[in-house]
Each structure stands twice: as structure tokens, then as C-alpha cells.
Design a protein that fits this description.
Layout: E1 2-3, E2 7-8, H1 27-60, H2 81-103
Antiparallel strand pairs: 1-2
């Protein structure tokens, strides 16, 4: 990708999240899958915007752009469907408990 004043840089790779392996189709599984995919998209967009802002600031200072590919992790983490489902339920449970705690204040 080329942006005027920044030169060439490689955008971050897409997230490799496999949430298609759910044991039983249910509204909760669909909601968890959608939430996880939306969160991944949000995080990726946020990171890309931050990288773009940093590269624009660096271009204004006369510095070369940051090559994001050198900061990628080398080991992708794959969880099986049961572990991913349990992890998603734990995160949602923690969020619900956090909201209930904040509402009591």
C-alpha cells in the first residue's frame, strides 16, 4: 500500500480465528461467534489506524515508515471448539459480573 509522504508499508495480516467449529448450533454459539469476529475486526481496525497515525507522524518528522510485518507473532494460537466456547462463556460471564458490580455502586 502506498500513502503520499509515507512510502510503501505492509498492512497487518488478517486475524486467523476459527470459530466455525461449534459443537451444537444455538443462538448463544452464533452470538459468541459474531461477537468474537466483531471484536477481532475492531482490534485489527484499531491497530491499523494507530499504525497509520504513527507513520504519518514519522513522515512529518522525516523518518521512514514502520514496517508492521516485523512485529508479527510467529506462532498462531489455535484453540479447539470446546476450549474456545468455554473461554467465550467465561469472558461473557466476567463482563456480566462486572456490569452488575458497577450497577450496584
Amino acid at each position: 500500500m502506498h500513502i503520499d509522504g509515507l512510502g510503501d508499508y505492509s498492512p497487518l495480516p488478517p486475524l486467523d480465528v476459527n470459530l466455525s467449529d461449534t459443537s451444537a448450533p444455538s443462538p448463544w454459539a452464533d452470538a459468541l461467534r459474531t461477537t468474537a469476529q466483531a471484536w477481532g475486526t475492531y482490534q485489527q481496525t484499531r491497530t491499523m489506524n494507530e499504525l497509520q497515525r504513527i507513520n504519518i507522524d514519522r513522515a512529518r518528522a522525516g523518518l521512514p515508515p514502520i514496517n508492521a510485518s516485523q512485529y508479527q507473532t510467529g506462532v498462531p494460537i489455535q484453540l479447539d471448539a470446546q476450549t474456545q466456547s468455554t473461554l467465550n462463556l467465561a469472558i461473557i460471564g466476567a463482563l456480566v459480573l462486572g456490569v452488575l458490580f458497577l450497577m450496584q455502586r
